[in-house]
Amino acid sequence: MIRQLIDVVGPEDARPVRRMAVALVVGAVLQGVAFALLVPVLEAMLGDDPGDVWPWLWTLVAVSALYCAVYFWSLLVGFEAGAALARSLRHRIGDRVAEMPLGWFGPERVGQLGQLATKSVMDIMGVPAHLLRPLVTSFVTPVTVVALMYFFDWRLALAATLTIPLIVLVYRWSTTLTRQADEARTAARTETGGRVVEFAQLQPVLRVFGRGEARSGARLDDALRTQTEASRRVLVTGVPGLVGFALVIQAAFTVVLLTGTYLALDGSLDAAKLLALLVLAVRFTEPISETAVLGSTLNTARSALAQVADLLAQPTLPEPSTPRVPDGNGVEFDDVGFGYDDKQVLSGISLTLAEGTMTALVGPSGSGKTTVSKLIPRFWDVDSGVVRVGGADVRNIAPEVLMSRISVVFQDVYLFEGTILDNIRVGRPSATDTEVREAARLARVDEIVHRLPDGWDARVGEGGALLSGGERQRVSIARAILKDAPIVLLDEATASLDPENEQAVQEALGNLTAGRTLLVIAHRLQTVAAADQILFLDEGRIVERGTHEALLAANGRYASFWAQRRRAVEWSLAGQHS
Asked: Which of 48, 100, 330, 492 has the fewest CB atoms below 10 angstroms from its CB?
């Protein structure tokens, strides 16, 4: 487990763990020596001349004092190691998550990451602070005791040694019994965490559609029942192992007791020495027996370590060894193919976004429009072909350089807990307050601020919950304006807004996109018609491309799309007048 800990935290942050391990081993050896010194002490006290006990007694006192000093040192190092582990693990988890391709993230990751950053880190933190001590003591101290027992009577020492393989075998059996059940419990906890977050986030939807508390919480209830059943299986499965391990420890002591009794009856071992050695035999079995109660806790810690190690082993987007600097702000797709897992999403995509022009992506839902927009900032790496920005393969551009040239406005906006100013400043953290407020004015966020009691210091709530969808969108656009990137990607930025907010957002977008290379995913007719180039996607392929007038004249897929949208708009207007 110590090696696994060092592998997870890395060699630089593993120094407190190594110091902890050294302190525990030294302390366990000293404890074994102190136990062994009980033999000459008891033998002298029960012998013909009790005065012979003093040299041994003072030696025992000295070793015990040294053990107490090492024990105190190991406590300090243990808490230091636990705190260092928690800090290091959270940093490493955060750094790795920030390096992961966006395709790695999914709904199930919410519960998993929550479990990793909280429960798993706390479980691992408890290893040096609470678990390593009994674990090291239960193995090092008995080995020291048996080794020193050979100096007093090799026959009893040999009897104790012969029981060790059986103890190890039963210990492995007992831990194996609970390992699979404990892994199932961990998986159930992760699933429950995800369901709790989902249940809280979906409350507005659940209530709007009239789902009762019992029905709306059905998935959460199922997850809780699964977790309860998994925890019960851990207990039920672990009982035979605990009982078996306790029996084999008792059997080991019985073997030493019977051997000593036989030798005493045979006259080859005096009673005083037998009594002393039996006390030592108790000290041999006692630390081992304590490991029985650690089985489930150790499995939990190992499982937590394995989960963190699995996350840290996930492949990240490779960074270029010799980064290139883009020459210009044009974008090019050259025969690009891409898929999620085994599902092909894009095939043979070739397109060019000329610098300073506007390109509109249209097509049915699921045709790959959003995927195209997310390959430009390299949220994923393509499976085949090349995506270029400024003539350079995005895989050969340093991530910070690539992202400095791109602003993205998504349909679903997430705001961080904090003030409106804080959320806009995310676009460029070094910006002055004046620059932030100017970006807010261009995005018409100042209108929102004037309506709020706390003004610029108004807090937006978790995920921006205290603002409306249109207000969140304006804050997102203000971020992009503040960033002032030459390439702008808009993904359905006004798809779900009311007319008032849509007009405000459209005006804000006008301030954002002027003179930039612009890729728009939109169904708004006015936006699509104004594009310099329109690309129609279907099933991951570009089936039509050209200007609005040329595509209408071709009377193909785009013309059909345009006619459907026009009918939808007219139907909506007719419905309002009926």
From this structure: 48
What is the per-residue pLDDT across 182-226, written as a single tens digit (0 to 9) for each? Answer: 666 666 666 666 666 666 666 665 565 555 444 446 666 776 777
Residue with tokens 């996930």: 314
CA 300 – CA 187 distance, rounded (Å):
11
Sole residue written with tokens 């966020």: 445
Strands 406-409 and 392-393: unpaired
For residues 566, 569, 574 and 577, what is the CA-based torsion angle, rounded to 10 degrees? -150
Amino acid at 135: L
Q: Which residue ranges make up each domain of the chain?
A: 2-312, 326-405+488-500+514-578, 412-484
Rounded CA-CA distance 41/259 in Å is 22
Q: What is the pTM (predicted TM-score) of this model?
A: 0.64
* Cα–Cα nearest to 474, from 496, 498, 449, 504: 504
117: tokens are 């950053």
Strand order in the sheet with 343-353: 343-353, 331-340, 384-389, 392-393
Alpha helices in 131-217 (DSSP H): 132-149, 154-201, 203-208, 213-216
Please, what is the average pLDDT of the chain? Answer: 81
Vertex 340 angle, CA 336 and 343, to 5°: 90
Closest C-alpha among 274, 189, 249, 265 to residue 223: 189
What is the token pair recorded at 353? Answer: 């976004």
**Token pair of 320 as six digits:** 């270029």
Structure-token match 């419990």, residue found: 185
Long-range contacts of 23-26, Cβ-Cβ distance < 8 Å, separation of 24 or more = 23/70, 23/73, 23/74, 23/77, 23/78, 24/74, 24/132, 24/133, 24/136, 24/137, 24/140, 25/136, 25/140, 26/70
Instruction: Kindly give the residue spans of alpha helices, DSSP state H, lying in 357-417.
Output: 369-375, 399-404
How remote is the C-alpha of 20 from its chain's centroid?
Answer: 26
* Cβ-contact 436, 479 below 8 angstroms: no
340 has which bridge partners?
343
Q: Which CATH number fits domain 2-312: 3.40.47.10, 3.90.650.10, 1.20.1560.10, 3.30.1330.10?
A: 1.20.1560.10
Q: How many residues does the chain have?
A: 578
Reduce the secondary structure of 219-252 to three states and give it as a string.
Answer: HHHHHHHHHHHHHHHHHHHHHHHHHHHHHHHHHH
Same-fold call for 326-405+488-500+514-578 versus 412-484: yes
* Chain segment 238-294, per-residue pLDDT in tens: 677 777 888 888 888 889 889 988 888 888 888 777 887 888 888 788 778 777 667
DSSP reduced 3-state for 541:
strand
Instruction: Kindly indicate whether the domain formed by 412-484 is annotated with CATH number 3.40.109.10.
Output: no
Q: Helix (H, G, I), strand (E, B), or coil: what is residue 398?
A: coil
Q: Which CATH class is domain 326-405+488-500+514-578?
A: alpha beta
Q: Nearest 5°: phi and psi at 143? A: -65, -40
288 close to 174: Cβ distance less than 8 angstroms? no
Residue 336 near residue 386, CB atoms below 8 Å: yes
